[in-house]
Specification:
Layout: E1 7-9, E2 13-19, H1 26-42, E3 50-60, E4 64-73, E5 89-96, E6 104-109, E7 119-120, E8 123-125, H2 137-152, E9 162-168, E10 174-179, H3 185-201, E11 208-214, H4 217-221, H5 231-239
Parallel strand pairs: 2-4, 5-10
Antiparallel strand pairs: 1-9, 3-4, 3-5, 5-8, 6-7, 6-11, 9-10
């Protein structure tokens, strides 16, 4: 069973092609700027940094994908609240980190993030490479490894992550999912606790305010707060529940 509006696709063979976003009309740009400014006033921790937008996704043979993307900034997400405006999905990576007992790690997002209080897998939106750099599956894998280190204190190397699947949501967001090697449950909790101590001492707030290991969608439902729509089907698929 998959979340409504979500399509599960292969992930092992992905070719990424850079494109350019069409110019916005003056009306749409003004509305986008207005919505973005209102959003930042409500959450001053948000910033208009670079991000990769999805402009197309097509199958390439039996198990391949061609993913078209373009350079933009977080401000463009405000177009989702502008009637009749062109909307482009976000490209993100997620990592399914299992414990050695088969449970899966999930984290609750901090108040300073774009989805405060929401439970989800470690991961994040993809930033475009510097000029001259190439965005490919290797770059996505490296980005996923950085997210693991920043969110749960993991030292898993990028080459230890395995492509698992790709998910396309109703808003056009595309997530490339990886699996990490299993770790002892105690080690996962200890590494996260050390990350929290380090960031708190530095005066910063971790992206996750809490982590938990769950073994089924039912255990996910018992956690307090909302969770990403795709999370329950992913847990079900991985654990076989």
């Amino acid at each position: 069973m998959t979340a409504p509006g979500v399509e599960i696709l292969p992930a092992g063979h992905i070719r990424l092609v850079e494109t350019v976003l069409p110019e916005l009309s003056g009306r749409h740009r003004a509305a986008m700027d207005r919505v973005w400014e209102e959003t930042v006033r409500a959450n001053p921790a948000l910033f208009d940094g670079p991000v990769a937008a999805v402009t197309g996704l097509e199958r390439d043979g039996a198990d391949g994908l061609v993913l078209s993307w373009a350079r933009t900034t977080y401000r463009h997400r405000a177009l989702r609240q502008v009637p009749d405006a062109p909307v482009y999905g976000s490209l993100y990576v997620s990592v399914l980190q299992p414990a050695d007992d088969g449970r899966v790690l999930v984290g609750r997002m901090a108040p300073s993030t774009a989805a405060p209080g929401r439970w989800q897998l470690p991961g994040g939106t993809v930033e475009p490479p510097d000029d001259g750099g190439e965005l490919d599956l290797g770059a996505l894998r490296a980005h996923a490894a950085r997210e693991l280190a920043e969110e749960i204190g993991s030292d898993t190397r990028a080459d230890a992550l395995s492509p698992w699947l790709t998910a396309r949501g109703g808003r056009g967001n595309v997530g490339v999912m990886f699996t990490a090697p299993p770790r002892p449950a105690r080690e996962l909790y200890d590494r996260y606790a050390e990350l929290v101590r380090t960031e708190t001492a530095a005066g910063t707030q971790p992206e996750f305010t809490r982590i938990e290991l769950i073994g089924s969608p039912a255990e996910l439902e018992r956690l307090e707060g909302p969770h990403a729509g795709l999370l329950s089907p992913l847990v079900r698929r991985y654990t076989g529940t």
